[in-house]
DNA sequence: ACCTCCCCGGAAAGCGGTTGCCCAGTCTTG
DNA sequence: CAAGACTGGGCAACCGCTTTCCGGGGAGGT
């Protein structure tokens, strides 16, 4: 392991000079010494020890991102947006995946605190359990107390900078669009009852439907993933239009209908939420609410890095995208 | 920022004792002192500074993963597998995305070396440019010279532990299966010419076709992504069966045919490679070569962590999965 | 010719932990 | 009961780098 000292010795200069040459400094170093140091470093294959730099400088150039599941394209897109933004700032990214375990999320915040990362981004839905949220919040406070910055994508209930997708409004807008096509009997594949994102989307949808004076949608709960959508789709009764609270579930629902010989959109219309890029070529093309996921990720990083006294909440609107998975029944 | 010293002072013990209580050690500490330290740490909200620990211990508990693109489900699955394995070992993961820029890949290796990560996993196809590969290799050697471990998913040309999907054999097996269905006129959406993974899959396919005495497939190059597949599909001539060297391209090709009114599989059969989970509900269901991506990711981590004198190369076979996107023309 | 100021090099004090070593007290054990 | 074996606590020397402060020497001013 070659250290700065080795380089300095080989170059015949002091540690200070070598440090100034190799790792940036306001101070100038004479051209000849500078060249000597650079040559020595190159010959020896020197790489600065970042742990030492972090310790000495008291600040690291790493940020942390905590997501539920990288194989879920929703989080992948979010993470990618944040990582591009981070790369633009010269920051490295440390990623944690919780696989939807809130305890893991708390543990990751603690770990990233220990890493003294510059900022932590929490992506993914909060759960409604106040006890868990409280513990997470305490852990975040502890981190912020020592100078850490935090931003969150999802619900605004941690008292930190947040990029909040308009889940409720998106659900409502979608409901109005679908009703506009003449649908009256709706069902919602609502995901887990405690997951805020799922709940808000569902609630917005249901509220809008009722506001239009239409019959209350049947709400079917289940897991938030493809298989959850598949299973829940079996219980949509006589609804002519089904809203799955995310695209991945919607795709599961489509598969379920296909397997059972139910035609989409002829027999039943299906809509999702998120507009996942990987799923855009699905047949039938999925009606959905588009969220600018990559932008949301990079925006979250911006928020975290900006000084911000009082927490900013960025509401981002979704855009209803009507595609062939829904039928105009007027 | 609360330090160990603060905790020690508050607990009225020495630094050494506090360290032994809080950050594990072979040495025992008396029950009363232990309790005092723990209480103090909790009251103060102490979190060990990992940079300091890394420096003092001379080893970090972080591993690095370098992928091309997280939003590509292939890499997401690989990364997820590796991350699960890492979590099982109590390791944290630092992720770098190169967006297919080989220079970025080299830069990330340098950075992760600086971070003194325990191991680096390089996922994603190597390119055939020997100059770039040489520089990457030198950077890796530099890292390994200082005790770093490296494993790679893809081609075995860096002289490190490698998980090598049998791209050539997979392509060949697929060709034989398709020929077995009676197809004779093939085309290959071959991706970029310099990308090893794409090249191997294509080469295996072409070789098997020729070995069967069938006419040489038409090979169309283009980008390795969805749009590349879409564009290339326009140039498949009179082929009755088209092999896209990955699933994402295949989906692009399907979209292209759909847009042009070419029916799949009636007019043309389409096959991909990888068996991406997110795409399994695609219609028509994609014939492909299944790769156990998550396993490959975790296996790569294992290889990297194992002591291994001479580099191990793990060949992983793909499995042809016939689905509706190909037609039996016998 | 002298003084000041600036520029650049080096010595050394941290940054926040870990751990080898010494030491006092308590336990065995012959 | 003396002597060796443990136990558990603390001191202090690092780990590799940054940065403050000090000093020497050359340039510029008078």
From TrEMBL, chains A, B:
GO molecular function: DNA-binding transcription factor activity; transcription cis-regulatory region binding
Keyword annotations of the record: DNA-binding, Transcription, Transcription regulation
UniProt keyword DNA-binding, yes or no: yes
Domain of life of the source: Bacteria
Positions of the HTH lacI-type domain: 2-57
CDD domains for the chain: HTH_LacI (cd01392), PBP1_LacI_sugar_binding-like (cd06267)
Record-linked SMART domains: HTH_LACI
A Pfam family that the UniProt record links to this protein: LacI
Name the UniProt record assigns to this protein: LacI family DNA-binding transcriptional regulator
Organism, scientific name: Nonomuraea rhodomycinica
């Amino acid at each position: 392991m070659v250290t700065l000292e080795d380089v300095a010795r080989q170059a015949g200069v002091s540690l200070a000079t070598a440090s100034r040459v190799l790792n940036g400094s306001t101070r100038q170093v004479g051209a000849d010494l500078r060249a000597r140091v650079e040559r020595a470093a190159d010959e020896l294959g020197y790489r600065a020890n970042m742990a030492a730099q972090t310790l000495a400088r008291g600040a690291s150039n790493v940020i942390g991102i905590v997501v539920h599941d990288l194989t879920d394209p929703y989080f992948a897109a979010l993470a990618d947006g944040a990582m591009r933004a981070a790369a633009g700032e010269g920051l490295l990214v440390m990623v944690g995946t919780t696989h939807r375990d809130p305890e893991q999320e708390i543990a990751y915040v603690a770990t990233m605190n220990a890493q003294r990362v510059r900022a932590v981004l929490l992506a993914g839905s909060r759960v409604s359990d106040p006890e868990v949220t409280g513990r997470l919040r305490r852990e975040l406070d502890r981190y912020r107390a020592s100078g850490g910055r935090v931003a969150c994508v999802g619900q605004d209930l941690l008292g930190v900078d947040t990029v909040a997708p308009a889940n409720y409004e998106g659900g409502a807008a979608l409901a109005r669009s679908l009703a506009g096509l003449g649908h009256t009997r709706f069902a919602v594949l609502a995901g887990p009852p405690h997951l805020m994102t799922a709940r808000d989307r569902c609630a917005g949808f249901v509220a809008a439907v009722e506001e239009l004076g239409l019959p209350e949608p049947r709400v079917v709960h289940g897991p938030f993933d493809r298989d959850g959508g598949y299973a829940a789709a079996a219980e949509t009764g006589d609804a002519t239009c089904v809203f799955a609270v995310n695209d991945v579930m919607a795709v599961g629902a489509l598969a379920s209908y296909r397997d059972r010989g139910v035609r989409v959109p002829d027999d039943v219309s299906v809509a999702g939420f998120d507009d996942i890029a990987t799923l855009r070529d699905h047949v039938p093309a999925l009606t959905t609410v588009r969220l600018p996921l990559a932008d949301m990720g990079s925006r979250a990083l911006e928020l975290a890095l900006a000084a911000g006294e009082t927490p900013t909440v960025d509401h981002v609107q979704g855009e209803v995208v009507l595609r062939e998975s829904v039928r105009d029944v007027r």
